[in-house]
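Extended Data, panel c. Modelled sequence:
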Amino acid sequence: MSKIIDGIKISKEIKAEIRKKISIATKKGFRSPSLKIVLVGGHGPSKIYVNAKLKACESVGIDAELISLSDNILQEELTELIKKLNKDNDVDGFIVQLPLPENISIQKVIENIDSSKDVDGFTNDNIGSITSKNKKLLPATGLGVMTLIKRYSIDVESKKCVVIGSSRNVGGAIAQMLVQREDVTVTVCNSKTKDLKSITIDADLIISAVGIPNLVTEDMVKDGVSIIDVGISRVKDSSKRSGFKIVGDVDFDSIYKKANLITPVPGGVGPMTIVSLLQNTLKVYCEKFKI
């Protein structure tokens, strides 16, 4: 049995499910779901992520449109665009791709997004719903992680889970999602936690989301641990044509032999974040038309 938690495989399965639901809806006369992606500036990695999202939308039948804006756009101008998208009934959901230029306040952007169209799951209303029985649009990365746990039947009941990273939209949100299960003991750490090894060494499941290359090493984990690596970083590698390689927070090569299950980077959580965006868009669409 493979130890690899294959995010590409699971994302393809979910895309097929989404594609089928949209096909059924459009055959009944409903329009296709609509998603707008706002990209501010020419940040290289952001362009790559956005293109992947557009391609994923196309593959399932979601009408996605890219709105490209100059990196010197004023906060007020971006706010006006967001308010316009909020009011457009033909737009089911939209995202403002992060990161944003320094002159733009991320918090102000999030505060102006209508939570019912916030398919990234970043607004206070949506993140707050994690602790509610009435879950709304969950943060895409966290939803992707929880989907992997479910689809790979990772046993967390009465187990110890360590989440490394406490950011509002990722690590903190994932920790809250796990806590809501009420059957798992969750410890939240960060990159500045003292003697991190003393905490991770007893963990049955480690979820790392800090973006520090190879932070978690072989000596920090026990045999049979399950690992979900959310981190992604570029490190120099002269053997690669590009001069760098993509790695996660976890030293994959050394930990692989000890792990029960482990996500690769890339190919683990990344595809799941994108497919979760599609799931949230479909959720808005189906609730709007009561499909």
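The chain has ten helices and ten strands. This feature is highlighted in the accompanying rendering.
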